[in-house]
Design brief:
The chain has 486 residues and is α/β, with parallel strands linked by helices. The chain contains 13 helices and 20 strands. Helices cover 33% and strands 19% of the residues.
């Protein structure tokens, strides 16, 4: 079984919030920490060597009192939660000093050291004219279809940015190495930067003389995607992954949304739009995009699928059961990664329970939209774990931190009762029913199978599951795991 269960929360997108949420956002770092501690309980089962929960709002220091920091670190650790440092090249000396201080306290307490290094990866597309596209008449232009604040230029004009970005990593990594502080976990949330093939990117590249010269068959979207994703992989490998591993060979390093898959992506990020003419697979109103196999080219050491309640997905499907509209898509994403990732590569999935990126006030909404229920969200987490997911990384806006952490930590804590299966079991089912009904996942350990059955219809009797040619009968048991014998 892949390595330890890790749950982390990382900021990724903007989110429209109501007045009470705005009020929650004014909470201090210390108040957010206290809210998390109040909503969660110490673990009832030993965590052993399994990775702790990590959270974006639990990143960085909030007090100059080392004794207070140590107290909080111990209380969080008792709940299976850890603190990350957050590196900032724009304020490098202050963020480095804080990071080293936190790491020394963690080392003193025997805790792992985790880093949010996202800021170190920015920016290849920094607004310089030399990074822009070049039109036939020699004029320069850029693509702002991903964000009005990001001038996305020519993918083939960014090589000169590598040394500066790499140095940003070197500065922090070298200081930790010199201080004898081994980094265990380091992640990025690198999104709107570098080569991207969606939105208006294809149209822009078709008008760029440099792009057309570099991609002779640019009118074939697959060729265009392959060229851009290969460059994007090179950037991540040469600037981030190989740099991290040079200092800390055993560190887990990865980036948001980079993971092995079956050739399709079942979700769209908040900044992504389908490129007309690109190939896709239809499922009701969903357009699942063909995706380049990028993970093996990046050098990353863990996979990071994104399993979110993206607002538009609710309208893709006609299921009368509202929960299954969320559950179905999210389990497709998680199962895709679980089936496609080699057993020696940990899968640490990003999750979000609250509806992700809903329309702003006054914008059209999906009729009948319902929030994913807490009950079925917990069931989703169980099924992900029982299909081979090793870790659960959760992003959310600030005001949602306490509740999101509560839901994840409940499942994380309960799953430790079955640590032997999670550590050593093999998945027995990857089925995702195309209509609401019983969903079964399980981990086999010898002749025993840890299973979870979740029903989205009124099926009462047992259902059959084929396990290596043998039939396993799985009865309906609500909200519990079962250990059955083959």
């Amino acid at each position: 079984m892949r390595i330890a269960l890790a749950i982390a929360i990382s900021v990724a997108t903007t989110y429209a919030v109501n007045a009470s949420a705005q009020e929650m956002k004014r909470m201090t770092h210390a108040e957010i920490i206290q809210d998390v501690l109040q909503r969660t309980k110490p673990l009832a089962f030993p965590r052993g060597d399994r990775l702790p929960i990590r959270a974006s709002r639990l990143e960085g220091l909030w007090t100059d009192d080392d004794a207070e920091v140590e107290r909080v670190l111990r209380e969080l650790d008792a709940r299976g939660i850890a603190m990350n440092a957050r590196w900032s090249p724009g304020n490098r000396e202050k963020s480095l000093a804080e990071g080293l201080r936190l790491a020394r306290l963690q080392k003193k307490l025997g805790l792992g050291i985790g880093i949010n290094a996202n800021a170190c990866m920015h920016s290849f597309c920094n607004g310089e004219e030399r990074t822009f596209h070049v039109a036939e008449d020699g004029t320069l232009f850029y693509d702002d279809s991903f964000s009005p604040r990001r001038k996305m230029g020519c993918p083939f004009a960014l090589k000169h940015r590598y040394p500066e970005i790499r140095e940003q990593f070197d500065h922090f990594l070298g200081a930790y190495k010199d201080a004898g502080l081994d980094i265990e976990f380091i992640y990025l949330d690198w999104e709107i930067d570098g080569p991207l093939e969606w939105n208006g990117a294809w149209a822009s590249s078709k008008k760029c003389t440099r792009c057309r010269q570099s991609i002779p068959n640019i009118d074939d979207f697959a060729e265009f995607q392959r060229a851009l994703r290969t460059l994007r992989c090179e950037m991540q490998r040469e600037v981030c992954a190989e740099t991290v591993k040079r200092y800390f060979p055993r560190a887990l390093v990865g980036n948001y949304s980079v993971y092995p898959h079956n050739g399709y992506r079942y979700w769209y990020d908040y900044y992504e739009e389908f490129a007309e003419g690109a190939p896709f697979k239809a499922d009701q109103r969903a357009k699942y995009r063909e995706w380049f196999h990028e993970f093996s080219l990046t050098g990353y050491t863990f996979a990071m699928p994104v399993v979110y309640t993206w607002y538009p997905t609710f309208g893709w499907y006609d299921f009368a059961n509202a929960d299954y509209r969320w559950f179905y898509n999210m389990l497709l994403v998680a199962t895709n990664a679980c089936k496609s990732t080699p057993a020696d590569i940990p899968i640490i999935s990003w999750l979000h329970w609250h509806t992700t990126s809903p329309p702003r006030e006054g914008e059209p909404t999906i009729p009948g939209l319902q929030q994913f229920s807490e009950e079925k969200y917990r069931e989703l987490l169980w099924h992900m774990l029982l299909r081979g997911t090793d870790g659960l990384m959760m992003w959310c806006p600030a005001e949602e931190t306490g509740k999101e952490m509560q839901l994840l930590q409940e499942v994380y804590a309960a799953a430790l009762e079955y640590k032997e299966f999670l550590d050593n079991g093999e998945p027995v089912s990857f089925a995702v029913p195309s209509q609401p009904g019983p969903v079964v996942s399980g981990l086999r350990l010898g002749n025993r199978v840890l299973v979870r059955r979740t029903d989205f219809d009124d099926t009462k009797g047992s259902i059959s599951l084929d396990v290596d040619g043998r039939t396993l009968r799985v009865p309906r048991v609500e909200g519990e795991c079962q250990v059955l014998s083959l």
